[in-house]
Amino acid sequence: MASAIYVLNGPNLNLLGKREPEKYGHATLDDVEALCRSTAKEHGFEIEFRQSNKEGELVDFVHEAAKKNAAGIVINPAGYTTTSIAIMDAILAVNLPTVEVHITNIHARESFRHNSYISKAARGVICGLGVEGYALAIDGLARLLKKKK
Ligand code: CA2
């Protein structure tokens, strides 16, 4: 069986495409999942796609990724980006290559969005490229993982 990339989505991302399309675009989270699956398939990976509005559940997903021997993690921590030492610690603990994604350019927005705890644990960060950022994160992880073989 192909190994999996876990794609984790934080609070309110279940509203993608349904609210504030001027900010976050028209793609729904189901569209993002389909994009992730097709991108991963090109590289021979499967996707485990999750969303939660609860910090602890996101921590559990990170632990699950390690337990299931995932190849890597793509995470949009959303509103937990600038507050969650718990998610940062989980990513540091499992030591899986992790790419942080934001749909918007957080650095061009309010200053309270700039300082990401998750970036301190991530191998790379993509922001401001819309939901295409998820596909680019999977491409990037696939390239990193191929190099390791
Ligand atoms: O740009 C991103 O992807 C963010 O992670 C989105 C978060 C925000 O707190 C970060 O600063 C940047 C917000 C996610 C909320 O998702 C919604 C989606 C549609 C409508 C309303 C909220």
Features:
149 residues, alpha/beta, five-stranded parallel beta sheet, 5 helices, 17% strand, binds ligand CA2
Structure characterization notes:
The chain is of the alpha/beta class and 149 residues long. The chain has helices spanning 21-24, 29-42, 55-67, 85-94, 132-148, and strands spanning 4-9, 46-51, 72-76, 98-102, 124-127. The longest helix is centred in the last third of the chain and has 17 residues, at 132-148. It is globular and about 35 Å long. It starts with a strand and ends with a helix. Ligand CA2 is lined by residues 12-13, 15-16, 19-20, 24, 76, 78-79, 81, 102-104, 106, 113.
Write the layout of secondary structure elements.
Blueprint: E1 4-9, H1 21-24, H2 29-42, E2 46-51, H3 55-67, E3 72-76, H4 85-94, E4 98-102, E5 124-127, H5 132-148
Helix pairs in contact: 2-5, 3-4
Bound molecules: ligand CA2.
Radius of gyration: 14 Å
Kindly state the percentage of residues in helix: 25-40%
Strand content: 15-25%
Average pLDDT reading: 97
Ligands: ligand CA2
SSE-based structural type: alpha/beta
Strand arrangement in the largest pleated sheet: 2-1-3-4-5
Broad shape = globular
Poorly predicted regions are none
Summarize the structure.
The chain is α/β, with parallel strands linked by helices. The chain has helices at residues 21-24, 29-42, 55-67, 85-94, 132-148; strands at 4-9, 46-51, 72-76, 98-102, 124-127.
